[in-house]
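In response to reviewer comment 3 from the previous cycle, which asked for concrete evidence that the modeling workflow produces usable outputs, we include below a single protein chain processed end to end. The sequence was submitted unchanged, and the resulting structure tokens are shown without manual editing.
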Amino acid sequence: MTDPLGRDPDVLTTKELAAKLGLSAQTVRRMASAGQIPALRTGKDYRYSWNAVLDVLRQPHPIAGGSGNEESRPGAGRLATQQARDRAAREF
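The workflow returned the following structure tokens.
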């Protein structure tokens, strides 16, 4: 897909990132606002670097009910985050 405006293909909108990860746009926005994925706020929406998001999703994530040292994060939920990581890992 080529962009007639010459936009960087690494920079995605919420809708584009959601489609790549197989998540809803609302879940992606929640993950961004909770700080679970890197995002740049542009007015009412966000922009995402595909490579930066993949780097974050490939990092180990604490599991709920673990040793108690892990911090519980509010937001989109661990299941959605884990599913996104799994999909991203299968792509590469």
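Helices lie at 14-21, 25-33, 50-57, 78-91. We consider this sufficient to address the reviewer's concern, and the full set will be provided in the supplementary archive.
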